[in-house]
DNA sequence: TGTTTGACTGGGA
DNA sequence: CTCCCAGCCAAAC
């Protein structure tokens, strides 16, 4: 039977879509916003499925230290860094420069 | 149906 | 920020 309510994956998509241009967030921040604090891995798994959607800027989602852990899932892998640089985010050695400044926390910005 | 894996995180050193 | 260890939960095999 169909699930009328939004799935965990869908919830992740909604939050990622709300990430402002030129900003990045972490998997844990999204998971925390969804109330699944310990399920940060599921966010990454959801992003894997989100890869099918054009509306989900997965390149704006990195790990807690600003490391582009999911870049290998992009086509090509350099695409993730390239997209971030287009948004004005500096990336060095697969890591977001000035990560703290571009960090966007949904639990704070959206203030659930 | 049980085991393995994974785009992670937090705590301690 | 870095390295190591343990916990976490759902999807995939």
Automatic annotation (TrEMBL):
| InterPro entries per record | ATL_DNA_repair, MethylDNA_cys_MeTrfase_DNA-bd, MethylDNA_cys_MeTrfase_DNAb, WH-like_DNA-bd_sf
A GO BP term here is: methylation
Q: Which residues does UniProt call coiled coil?
A: none
GO MF term set: methyltransferase activity
**One Pfam family per UniProt:** DNA_binding_1
Annotated CDD domains: ATase
Q: Which UniProt keywords apply?
A: DNA damage, Methyltransferase, Transferase
| UniProt keyword annotation of DNA damage present | yes
Q: Which residues form the Methylated-DNA-[protein]-cysteine S-methyltransferase DNA binding domain?
A: 7-89
**Protein known as:** Methylated-DNA-[protein]-cysteine S-methyltransferase
Origin organism is Fulvivirga imtechensis AK7
